[in-house]
Amino acid sequence: MVNTPSVTSTPFPVASRAAALGATPAAETLPAPDDQHVVAFLQRWYAYGGGRSEDILVEFGLSTTQFFTRAKDLLESKAVRVDPAVAEAMLTVCRKRLWLGQ
Q1: Among 23, 55, 82, 89, which is most buried by a count of CB atoms within 10 Å?
Q2: What pTM was estimated for this model as a whole?
């Protein structure tokens, strides 16, 4: 029998994980892995309207409003690298979902 270490994670970091770990200021400019996860999820689902509310809740522990607000902020701040045309399409989905309240 192989012992595998248990891994615990939180849905999103507190204020700044990099700062909490004593990272250098340059490391803080890199997107957090959770930010990458948000954008990767949206990148898979934007062509289908952004994904189901239930999937977002299970995967991220966020309401759809919280998720799409976070994704919109990330895309608008260019904190993550995404093709500009894809980023604009993803922003359109974010804005629509926020406007609809879903």
Answers
A1: 82
A2: 0.67
